[in-house]
Structure formats: C-alpha cells, structure tokens
Write a structure and sequence with these properties.
- By secondary structure, this protein is an all-alpha fold.
- The protein has a domain at about 20-90.
- It is built from five helices and no strands.
- It has helices at about 5, 10-35, 45-65, 70-90, 100-105.
- The protein is flat.
C-alpha cells in the first residue's frame, strides 16, 4: 500500500464526501420509508425492502470507498456521521405553532 495514496488530502476529502452522500441516501431513505408507512398497502414489505436495500448498499459503499485503506474508511465514516446529525436536525419534531422564527425569538435576549 503506497503511503502517499492513502493519506492524500484530496482522497480523504473525497472519501468524506462519499460518506456524506452515503449517509444522506441511508437516512433519507429511512425517513421516506417511515413517512410512507401509513399510506402503502403492505407497510411491512416496504420496511423490509427498504432495510434490505440500505443494508446492502451502505456496506458496499463503505467497502468501495475504503478500498483497503483505513484512513479513507474513517473519513467515510466521519461523513456518514455528519449526515446523521444533519438528518436528526432536519427531521426533529417542532412544537405545534412553533415555526423557525418562533424558535429563534424564544432564544433572543430579553430587554
């Protein structure tokens, strides 16, 4: 394993970006599956199919991105975790009647 290929910043950045895309696909697919649960005819089949697809594609993506280099695998995992935090932030339930502006106003300094 040539050391310069595994440790180059562009390869690590690309691996992190790939992890971000993998995470976006994983968590986006999970959110989409859960949102459609009540509107499909066979929700258990949809959940199983979504789970199988996610459990096949995500490890395959990590395997291909890592390419035998633990540094790239770690960068990919970091990107995946960033995608997880973004997904949690975007899908967090808000209290009724509390839009984005109301949440910001609640944290404003009081005169």
């Amino acid at each position: 394993m040539p050391m310069n290929e595994a440790w180059t910043w562009p390869s690590l950045a690309m691996a992190g970006l790939a992890g971000l895309v993998l995470g976006g696909c994983f968590f986006g697919s999970l959110w989409w599956t859960v949102q459609r649960t009540l509107s499909v005819r066979r929700p258990a089949l949809q959940h199983l199919a979504g789970w199988l697809l996610r459990m096949f594609l995500t490890p395959l993506g990590f395997y291909l991105v890592g390419a035998g280099h633990w540094q790239r695998l770690l960068a990919c995992l970091a990107g995946f975790l960033v995608a997880r935090f973004i997904a949690i932030r975007l899908t967090r339930p808000r209290p009724p009647g509390m839009g984005h502006e109301a949440l910001e106003a609640r944290h404003a300094a009081q005169p």
